[in-house]
Amino acid sequence: MQEESSRRGGDLTHISEVLADSGSSSPDLTKPVKEKRTEDCTCGQCGQPFQGEVTYYPRWPKSKPSRPTECPSCAAKRKAREAEELEVERESQRVVLREQWRRATGMPVELLAKTFDNFEKQYQRTAFKIAHDWAKDFDLNSPGGYPSLFFYSDTPGVGKGHLMSGIVNYVLDNWKGNPERTRCPIRFESGPSLVRRIRATYNIRKEDDTHEREDEVYRALAGVPLLLLDDVGKETPSRFTRETYWYIIAERVNSGLPVLISSRRPLEGDN
Prior knowledge:
Order of helices and strands: HHEEHHHEHEHHEHE
Number of helices: 9
Largest sheet: 4 strands, parallel
GO biological process, one term: DNA replication
Helix content: 40-55%
CATH class of the domain at 94-263: Alpha Beta
CATH architecture of the domain at 94-263: 3-Layer(aba) Sandwich
Radius of gyration: 34 Å
């Protein structure tokens, strides 16, 4: 038997002896797991004394109490510093994301170069103020209930597209949301191009699943936080174009989401 025990690694030792040798003991289940006391502590950062909450573990009398290592002042400074460092990191992520979104809006590159800063205000002061005030108050994180805008002039080249681009750039540059968000929240569509895009869905065969469907186009435009429709009515007026625009606008209104429209045609009229 002794030889067999030796092959297995030596004589067996009772667990109570192991616990005794290690300085451990069975917990006293009649005592609470934790007990908190306010005691004098010393800050490991500034070395100043302070009153801190010390946690004891009565069931395990040989265990060490948990003592705070920072005074309230040093703890507050550390948390503020960590929050600032996190915000710096998040802002650097936003910078990258803003540029990605700018390219994903669908707005032409030459139009994206136009901002409020390079707009010639002396010619369109009222329109500029309306657009600038709109952009300042608009929150891309909560667009619901925000009013829409209609830029109208029967004269081309007066700055309708410039103001729309100014709004897009201002809103993106001042966005402070979650940088983990990936989908671009702004969509720019040229009216004539949008009409052609929707018409193209009518020629798709049922078995063709590689092209977008009409309902997919409408759904994408209805749900985006900020939609811009440029040059609405530039194409030849027809019942189809009117129904297309009004359906999109109605969906936006019903969803409480804003739409920015530029046009050389008034909202009302025979066409």
